[in-house]
């Protein structure tokens, strides 16, 4: 087994000061790939359900014969705890900057995937408000369907520095989905119950108001932004912070990048270079910063150039050390198996080729998602 590390240059400038600490702890859980492998299902799953990572953003690219949602979460999953209803019913959710809806399994769900996850029961909540609206969401090569309703959502906080000024966020009358079907085995073997989307309202299914938009509308956050820190620790340390920034988790300045679209958290990259040599995105390209995607994905030519540069071939490579001012992309590892954190996708937009900067990229930065100014910021983790 060989191990390899890759570094890519990313330079921008500026800074922002932290305010309060209101954060939800995230856990790096056992991956879907690990769970399928342990149940002897991985090989059959991969054969029967090929997928295109970009189909999350362009559903028309999805495999018509696949029924597996969330295959792009197979390698790394960061999820946290929220509660819904009065009294509170707790759920583990994946905080996803690549989608915009909140949904959890419900007692109405008939799929096998719901049998081993927490299920919301409207009858147990005094603040539940039903609607006549339905919900249907396509996650790449799979889907979920259900109904929409309103209830109180509370984000269970994590306080590394307890303070009387710090408190949990209680989001009243939040619209959310109650799943009735969750086809396929991906949800069945995922450790999270549902998904909390943190992208823009423009891509929300059924026009449902996203959680963070509701927070902003109700004045629940001190700033209209949230920040994400993905720890290298296997079990703890990661978090999403709503309305604030904690400068103790990054070094240097926050480097601000304007968004190129208000759908996903999409930015424009000028190029990708290694040791001063442009090896991909030579004419500029688009990139989506997505906490709900494990890997770093890009056009096959660009990915091939990166693999070639580090001496990798057919998923193997040698250990190389490049200058420290480059980003270190961690590797996906499970049960002694190592694979690259890169994946090829070939999708072009009207603004250029598309790259997806998933968790292996995000974990090297403290990332701020700023809705007030439609921009993101990156700073090297401390």
Number of domains: 2
The CATH C-level class name of the largest domain: Mainly Beta
The CATH H-level superfamily of the largest domain is Acid Proteases
Taking all Cα atoms into account, the compactness measure Rg is: 20 Å
* Structure summary, number of beta strands: 23
In the predicted model, the low-confidence regions spanning at least 5 consecutive residues are: 1-21, 61-75, 160-167, 313-338
Helix tally? 5
Q: Bin the strand percentage.
A: 35-45%
- Determine the CATH topology of the largest domain: Cathepsin D, subunit A, domain 1
Helix and strand string, N-terminal first? EHHEEEEEEEHEEEEEEEEHEEEEEHEE
Pfam families: A1_Propeptide, Asp
Protein name: pepsin A
Keywords: Aspartyl protease, Digestion, Disulfide bond, Hydrolase, Protease
Enzyme class: hydrolase
Ordered list of secondary-structure elements with their pairings:
Elements: E1 23-29, H1 32-38, H2 42-48, E2 77-84, E3 89-96, E4 102-105, E5 129-139, E6 142-155, E7 169-181, E8 194-197, H3 211-217, E9 225-229, E10 238-242, E11 255-262, E12 265-269, E13 272-274, E14 277-280, E15 285-289, E16 296-298, H4 300-309, E17 332-334, E18 337-339, E19 342-344, E20 348-349, E21 352-357, H5 359-362, E22 365-370, E23 375-380
InterPro entries: Aspartic_peptidase_A1 (IPR001461), Aspartic_peptidase_AS (IPR001969), Aspartic_peptidase_N (IPR012848), PEPTIDASE_A1 (IPR033121), Peptidase_aspartic_dom_sf (IPR021109)
Domain Peptidase A1: 78-379
GO biological process, one term: proteolysis
């Amino acid at each position: 087994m060989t191990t390899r590390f890759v570094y890519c240059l990313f330079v921008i400038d500026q800074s922002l000061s932290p305010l309060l600490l209101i954060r939800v702890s995230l856990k790096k859980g056992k991956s879907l790939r690990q769970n399928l492998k342990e149940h002897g299902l991985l090989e059959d799953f991969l054969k029967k359900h090929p997928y295109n990572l970009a189909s999350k953003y362009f559903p028309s690219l999805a495999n018509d014969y696949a029924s597996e949602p969330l295959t792009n979460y197979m390698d790394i999953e960061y999820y946290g705890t929220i509660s819904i209803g009065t009294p509170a019913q707790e759920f583990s959710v994946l905080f996803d900057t690549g989608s915009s809806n909140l949904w959890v399994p419900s007692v109405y769900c008939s799929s096998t995937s719901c049998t081993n996850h927490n299920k919301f029961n409207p009858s147990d909540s005094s603040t539940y408000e039903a609607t006549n609206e339905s919900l249907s969401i396509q996650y790449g090569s799979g889907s979920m369907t259900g109904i929409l309703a309103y209830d109180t959502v509370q984000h269970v906080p994590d306080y590394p520095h307890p303070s009387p000024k710090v408190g949990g966020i209680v989001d009243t009358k939040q619209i959310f989905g109650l799943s009735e079907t969750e086809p396929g085995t991906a949800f069945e073997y995922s450790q999270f119950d549902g998904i909390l989307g943190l992208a823009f309202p423009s891509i929300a299914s059924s026009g449902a108001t996203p959680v963070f938009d509701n927070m902003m509308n109700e004045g629940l956050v001190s700033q209209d932004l949230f920040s994400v820190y993905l720890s290298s620790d296997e079990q703890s340390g990661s978090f999403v912070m709503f309305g604030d920034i904690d400068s103790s988790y990054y070094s240097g300045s926050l480097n601000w990048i304007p968004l190129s679209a208000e759908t996903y958290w999409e930015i424009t990259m000028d190029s990708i270079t290694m040791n001063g040599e442009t090896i991909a995105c030579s004419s500029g390209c688009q990139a989506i910063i997505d906490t709900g995607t494990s890997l770093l994905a890009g056009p096959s030519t660009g990915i091939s150039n990166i693999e070639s540069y580090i001496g990798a071939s057919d998923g193997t490579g040698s250990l190389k050390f490049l200058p420290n001012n480059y980003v270190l992309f961690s590797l996906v590892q499970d049960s002694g198996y190592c694979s690259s954190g890169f994946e090829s996708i070939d999708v072009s937009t009207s603004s250029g080729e598309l790259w997806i900067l998933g968790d292996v990229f995000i974990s090297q930065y403290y990332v701020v998602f700023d809705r007030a100014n439609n921009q993101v910021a990156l700073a090297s983790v401390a």
